[in-house]
């Protein structure tokens, strides 16, 4: 396999280098016998390579394409303290991405008795917690 992070000085991956100038697109390794993936077996077992490639073709035909969300400039690290991280709040869930229109969600109105019931329940727990 090709070397990763080639310009990183003095690390363990500088010890392994790709010696031949030709680049290969298909590799086959015996992971149990060669866990470091150093010896390519694709030339010795072309039937296995062919079977695995046919399996990949089958999987690609039945795969569902990835649906990425629309780009949002608020997600850029310059606006978030220089780091990639979550930028949307719960309040932003109301807004459709890219349109700036609130979603039409119809909320059920709570009855006044239900509101009073929850108010007295909170009040009771506060009073009881002050006694303890």
Automatic annotation (TrEMBL):
Gene3D superfamilies attached to this UniProt entry: 3.30.1120.10
GO molecular function terms noted in the UniProt entry: metal ion binding; sulfuric ester hydrolase activity
Keyword entries, A-Z: Calcium, Glycoprotein, Metal-binding
Top-level taxon in the UniProt lineage: Eukaryota
InterPro entries named among the record's database cross-references: Alkaline_phosphatase_core_sf, ARSB
The UniProt record lists the keyword Lipid biosynthesis: no
The protein's name in its UniProt record: Sulfatase N-terminal domain-containing protein
